[in-house]
Design goal:
There is one protein chain. The strands form five sheets. This protein has a seven-stranded parallel β-sheet with strand order 6-7-5-8-9-10-11, with helices on both faces. A two-stranded parallel sheet has the order 1-3. Strands 2-4 form a two-stranded antiparallel sheet. The chain starts with about 25 loop residues before the first strand and ends with a helix. The protein has helices at about 45-50, 50-70, 75-95, 95-110, 115-120, 120-135, 140-155, 160-175, 180-195, 200-215, 220-235, 320-325, 330-345, 350-360, 365-390, 415-435, 450-460, 465-490, 505-510, 565-585, 590-600, 615-620, and strands at about 25, 35, 70-75, 200, 260-270, 305, 395-400, 440-445, 495-500, 520-525, 545-550, 550-555, 560-565, 600-605, 610. By secondary structure, it is of the alpha/beta class.
């Protein structure tokens, strides 16, 4: 399962494209060039504050990125924008301001979403404007210049197009701090550097350069950024209330003797089943919580479903036990909600707690804090997904299959034995679904070649980039094929998966399950309440339909409700629809349900390739099958 990204990684910048002849064509992320650097870094915290050291390594990285663009024809805009964003950052560090601006323009020319045409590297653009045009270089003067530039530029934009992006950037400015980045450098990055001295992977070097950039070119101006965003939001938000297109599309299924019960599998991070309505809880009638495999099916205490731990061994706990028993669980739930509220421009007690906590955190406490945040967000995830999937359907029941994503800055190293356990677990999970007559399975997660390669790099496995890439490809191919084989063994189950939240092309990144094409699998992207593409949503030919993934409220462990955004929330919206269709028309096959969902969807006004689900029309169309 794809590990949740550290909140700080959003600061590592994105980018662009170049045309040339006779380049090697790249259509998959696994074929992108990789670089390592023969350097030893004994103190990452000191390194990111060393202007000369950063300038020297930045020049090497910049040359490698330019050579990549010269030699390779990369056929994916998000990756190209990533290159351009990095080159913008490196040119700012080198004081090449005009070149940096040029890369911003190139990135906007290949925007995949309307907001990106304006918002791509907008903070860097504001900084560059101050650096180029201001005769005074004091921070206070630059703050004023940056603030005024942003207010002018954003006020001239269509607010509905940029609102979500502004809210996200404002929230980011409120939790970013100097201590946060210094703490990550020493607590999270330094151990990975120690594993790779003399052959440091390029991603780690770029991360350190990014921290230097944030400390020097972001933190001093973040108050001006926040003030600008707040000014624009305050001037527009009350006058442009978002229209919610989903309310009139919704369908509620009331218990009816003519309808059939529908069992929905939630293949996720674990579900706190007792918080769901009693009639929505699937329970194994032959099992009880006694520490034994009472029914002899190979699983201990599988009352609500089955579970596997972080190493893909069978586990008797239906919720992740470390997070479930944390003494400071209440604090981390508040911090998680505070982060969600900050990035959605929602003022709350939890948002205030988050701001205060981040302003006071010490560098030496950051690594532990981030591990706990990621662990806890993963812990909340599965229950939230389950609540979305069962909502408004009295005929639905939820069965949980828990896989445990790694939450640590340096994940467990991949091994041949671990890969075998994981593929075996995939087969066992799908077999469990089949034996219990599950009709629909939601998978709001993904795993990629890049995740595998990153785990290899962070653990210092492999003597060079070539060996690392070969090992990552071998491991990833095995789990990919094992997962696909498991789904193929269950043609009677409809599998539904999230496209991803990385704002890229699903077919280029080749994550599973989202890039897999099977007759019983449908992939879901995210839009907002108005039906416009969410800032974060992954796209691509393999994305079949889109559903609301913006501020979706559902249960979390313990029974409270929280609003999450992401394709993790839009995917169970489609699982919810599939469950309702099968409750009323249980004779339908997975292929027929997919056909109904796609054909009844409406084209987005923003992008006709984006199909928005329409539950009412889907139920009407299902009656004709």
């Amino acid at each position: 399962m794809k590990p949740f990204i550290h909140l700080t990684l959003v600061f590592l910048l994105s980018s662009g494209i170049i045309n040339a002849q006779e380049k090697e064509i790249i259509t998959k992320a696994e074929d992108l060039p990789k670089h390592s650097y023969a350097i030893e870094i004994k103190d990452a915290q000191s390194f990111v504050e060393d202007d000369e050291a950063i300038l020297n390594i930045s020049k090497l990285v910049k040359n490698d990125l330019l050579e990549d663009l010269e030699n390779f024809d990369i056929r994916e805009n998000a990756t190209l924008r990533d290159y351009y964003g990095k080159l913008c950052m490196l040119n700012i560090i080198e004081s090449n301001y005009t070149e940096a601006l040029a890369y911003i323009e190139k990135g906007r020319l290949i925007a995949d979403k309307p907001s990106e045409e304006i918002m791509f590297e907008i903070e860097s653009e504001a900084l560059l404007n101050a650096l180029i045009n201001s005769s005074k270089k004091e921070v206070d003067h630059s703050n004023t210049t940056i603030k005024n530039f942003l207010i002018t530029k954003l006020s001239a934009a269509d607010f509905e197009v940029v609102q979500e992006h502004i809210e996200y950037l404002k929230g980011r400015s409120q939790y970013a701090s100097r201590n946060l980045f210094l703490g990550i450098a020493s607590g999270d990055v330094q151990p990975a550097l120690d594993n790779n001295q003399g052959k440091i992977p390029g991603n780690l070097i770029i991360q350190l350069i990014g921290f230097h950039y944030v400390l020097k070119y972001y933190i001093p101006y973040k108050d001006a950024l926040e003030a600008a965003y707040q000014t624009v939001l305050s001037a527009n938000i009350q006058d442009t209330a978002k229209v919610n297109i989903w309310k009139e599309r919704e369908v509620t299924i009331i218990e009816n003797a003519k309808y059939a019960p529908v069992l929905i599998g939630i293949w996720d991070s674990g579900v706190d089943t007792p918080v769901l309505p009693e009639k929505k809880q699937w329970k194994n009638p032959l099992e009880k919580f006694d520490g034994k495999d009472t029914d002899g099916n190979g699983f201990v205490d599988d009352v609500y479903g089955i579970a596997y731990d972080i190493d893909a061994f069978k586990d008797a706990n239906y919720l992740e036990p470390i997070a479930h028993t944390m003494e400071d669980k209440g604090l981390y739930q508040n911090l998680a909600k505070g982060y969600m509220d900050l990035t959605a421009n929602v003022e709350s007690e939890e948002a205030s707690t988050m701001r205060k906590y981040m302003s006071e955190i010490k560098p030496e406490d950051v690594a532990s804090y981030l591990d706990k945040v990621i662990l806890f967000i993963n812990y909340l995830h599965g229950t939230h997904v389950a609540g979305v999937a069962e909502a408004g359907n009295d005929m639905a029941k939820i069965l949980s299959a828990r896989m445990t994503p790694d939450y640590k800055a340096i994940p467990n190293p991949p091994t041949e034995e671990g890969i075998q356990r994981k593929t075996k677990a995939y087969a066992e999970i799908v077999d469990y679904f089949k034996k219990n007559n599950v009709r629909v399975v939601n998978m709001s997660w993904g795993y990629s070649y890049e995740n595998t390669l990153t785990a290899i790099e962070l653990n210092g496995i492999g003597k060079d980039d070539t060996e690392r890439k070969a090992l990552a490809k071998s491991y990833f191919t095995k789990v990919y094929n094992g997962f696909k084989k498991a789904l193929e063994s269950a043609p009677g189950i409809l599998f539904i998966c999230a496209a991803g939240n990385t704002n890229d092309d699903v077919d280029f990144s080749a994550d599973y399950p989202s890039s897999i094409n099977l007759p019983n699998l449908i992939t879901v992207g995210a839009v907002d309440t108005e039906g416009k593409k969410a800032r974060f949503t992954t796209e691509g030919k393999s994305v079949d339909v889109y559903a609301n993934g913006y501020e979706v409220e559902s249960y979390v462990p313990g029974g409270e409700k929280m609003a999450f955004s992401g394709t993790s929330a839009s995917s169970p919206k489609v699982a919810n629809l599939a469950g309702k269709i099968l409750a009323v028309y249980p004779q339908l096959t997975p292929q027929e349900v997919i056909d109904i969902i796609i054909k009844s969807s409406t084209k987005s006004e923003e992008d006709e390739k984006v199909l928005l689900i329409h539950p009412k029309k889907a139920l009407e169309l299902a009656s004709t099958f």
